[in-house]
Specification:
alpha+beta
């Protein structure tokens, strides 16, 4: 996979100490996807603003990014957040998406029906000018005991998250290369 497609470079749990150590077994998953390979002069480069617009577009128009999503409706929208209802066949999920301009998009799913609380944060990182990454941080909100019971499923879940995130970046790159992210407000 090339950097132009989005390359996952790290798949590890968050390296924190202190209070986090008490929750170490909870299903948390974090990884980075490289956006611009600044060491490759042939690779297309996208700007932080284009990347941001793509991450916001993923929240506003999720059907562009999730092929198996049947319906998506924005119920409430402000400059810094939105509430959405998503339908996957018979399953309906309501989530809240919040935005910190040019920094991160945070998805929060409250516990509802048979769905436990969970969250996803997509943070833009730029360790040096033009060197962009997106850090994807997942938390399924389960207890350590629940996670121990679901350890086998969590490996499948992590794999699916990774694949979906690389696909998200691939789609953002395609939209940027076609100029579609240049016309959107940031």
């Amino acid at each position: 996979m090339t950097a132009a497609q989005g390359r996952s470079i790290s798949c590890r749990p968050p390296a924190k100490t202190g209070r986090y150590a008490l929750k170490r077994q909870i299903m948390k998953f974090e990884h980075l996807v490289e956006i611009n390979d600044i060491l490759n002069p042939l690779a297309d480069v996208i700007t932080r603003e284009q990347l941001w617009r793509g991450l916001v577009l993923r929240a506003e128009s999720p059907k562009l990014f999730v092929s198996y999503l049947d319906e998506a409706a924005i119920m409430d929208c402000t400059e810094t957040s939105m509430t959405r209802t998503l339908k996957y066949g018979e399953l309906t999920v309501t989530d809240r998406v919040s935005f910190v301009h040019l920094e991160h998009v945070h998805y929060d799913v409250a516990a509802q029906n048979d769905i436990p609380q969970s969250s996803l944060r997509m943070s833009i990182e730029e360790p040096q000018p033009g060197s962009l990454f997106v850090r994807f941080c997942y938390d399924n909100g389960q207890t350590a005991e629940q996670d121990a019971e679901n350890a086998m499923y969590d490996e499948y879940r992590r794999s699916a998250y990774l694949e979906a995130d690389v696909d998200t970046i691939r789609m953002i790159r395609e939209l940027a290369e076609s100029g579609r992210l240049d016309a959107l407000p940031s």
